[in-house]
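anyone else get weird line breaks when pasting these?? whatever heres mine. first is seq + tokens for prot A
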Amino acid sequence: MKLLVMYHSGVGNTKLIAEMLNNRLKQSFVTEIMAIEKIQDKFFLDNYDGYIIGFPTHHTHPSISIIEFINSMMTLCKRKPAYIFTTCGWYSANTLRIFAKICAVKNIIPVLHQSYRCAATDGTLLVPWIKVLFTFEKNLEKKVEIEAEKIKDVFNNKQYNVNLPQFKLISIINYPNKKMGQLITFNIFLHKDNCTKCGKCIKNCNMNAMKFDEDKYPLFDKGKCEKCYRCIHHCPNKALSLSRRKVPKKQLTQDFFDFNKRK
């Protein structure tokens, strides 16, 4: 059985989980792993027997990038199973339920689903003194191991039924916070003294919310931002910030997500 592990990752949480799952699954399946921005030809997706699809939760909703990717796909020739997962800084609410319905329209059948609590990409910038926001849920590796075993059992069963995540009533209480988070987009400020004009923030932005100005400094387009804050966290010189006065105290850098270093 040939599986495609595909993911959208802003800062790196989802990429980490996708890699951990792939490391487990490749022992039992033929697997390939790919970020969705690297997938140019969506027609080739029919060449796989099943999928592992991951994405971040942004204000209790799937990321814009993953929704646009699935919506742009051709409907698969036949129904194929998928394990869908999301990463969140605190609470995913009905994110997986929303995404499962979008997938089913394309003949991608969500047979299993899971949420993983990871480092909070916004909270670590807004309130960096709260240490728990930089942590992952306890026994993360064990959880991934258990999930990989579930995938093996269900995918090999060959009978695939939609496993729609249940509606979570508690999400109603969170609704005002959800809408506020979706409506408000923070400005991202440039600290020119730190900027080397490397262009990394522009290259890394899937939504094209960053572009060069006439002096080759990054210019932020607020209307295109999907609030992943990769540009801030991955800036090598802390030149971008949610604060006009201060650079970020801490960042979720590439090293932070190095799987081997986290063991």
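and prot B, same format (seq, then tokens)
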Amino acid sequence: MTLPTSLPQVTIQVDAFTAIEDVEQGVIENEDIWISCYDSSMPSVHGKVAVMISDEDRNQCAFKGRDGVQCKRIQNTIFAVSCPALHIDNRSIHFPTHVITLPEVTSTKTSSKLDKGINNLDISPDGQLWVAALGNGSVLVGAGPSKARKDTPAPLEGNYHKGAVSTVQLVKPTTSTANPRILSGSEDFSLVLSEFPGFSSLAQVNSSALISQTLLPPSIRLTSHTRSVTSARVLPCGTKAISAGRDGTLRVWDLTPESTSVSRQIGMVRSTGDVAINSFASSFTRSASLAALALQSGHFDLVDVDSRNTLFSTSSAGFEYTRNGQLDAIDIYPLYTAHKYLVATGSQRGVISFFICTIDNGSVVTTNLGSCIRNGAGISDVKFIPLLKDSIGKWIQSARYTPSAKKFVTDAYPRLLVATTDGLPYQLQISQKSDSAGVQFQVTVEYAGGADCSPLRSIVWHDESKTVWVAGDDGVIWIY
């Protein structure tokens, strides 16, 4: 059995960016910030960086590391940290560019600290809207950060569920005159489809106030699941949806207004072993409509949504597979080679595993690329960052400029965003080894200054603005 690759980790004082700003603005003359670096196979390094006004440019800070760490500024909120003892060279450290704090949740006798927690998050393609799934059973829709607005509008609230909302999706309008829709799923076993009346309905009032605005009543409620709903997505056609739950089922729904079915369920697939589906991810291409299911048993299934058939399971006889606790996170990505898909899974024990699934005439050949672990904190969400396409839609290798290294890096595989239960998200690069057929893993970005020790539940890549949105139990949306 091959052990997961250990990933060195950099942590930095959570309010380091505030301390640096205080020095820049002359509030304080200088300050020390701490940086710690870890690797499970080597002794930890705990150093400090002195922050002071630069002698060369009095408008900038100078950084002087000691005790085994070095730090330099790349851009306003981006820094590079090095720790030679642990072979960490110019690791990018990103601090938030925007922070969205949700309004206070109304307190009741049955209130819990988890009521304000964000279990899931979605962003509109233009970044103008976000939707959050809250622990108190409500859905919030708010405005994204904008330079054109001085005040942030208060979000709208939909009290659609009697249990915590576990999944939300902003659904694109099917016509130019239609309104956006919101699909939500909950621990109360139900799903709700509702309309969002439009951006103009967000009134210009202080976002820190208690929420007084409400969303429209739901247009469709789906109630066939017998346990908590964990994930749900509307299909690209806009007239169907799929959902998964702890009842071990993946269900297909009819969303057409003219449907005469009471339940609207038009299909169902059971997980291998009838175990709970903790999460699923989907991929819809011209050749296939697939769902990858993260199972509580520690396995994953690959399902053909159109035929309602399970194409592959890691529990299949003869497939060499090591379970690392239950799977809580999964994503699937179509590669530039036809019929090949990259699957990433994240386990409760902090192990991320990668697989290539090749589909040929209904059969699947799966190759295990390897696995990695950073510090053992549970993986709560994973999302691939899409590779670039050319003008006619063909995949091309992505040449990314890495600010900390000041060079372009070509990626053969998409990078992976990782949300963790220790509140310290990161970005992972997968690259082909030059001397063998294997792959190697490297943390390219650590997202700092955010939740810090408060569990994260959702991480989202916004392609247009090239930003990362993170949310979790603290009820705050952090944007990098």
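btw re prot B: Residues 99-270+448-480 form a domain with the Methylamine Dehydrogenase; Chain H fold (CATH 2.130.10.10). Residues 156 and 201 are 8 Å apart (CA to CA).
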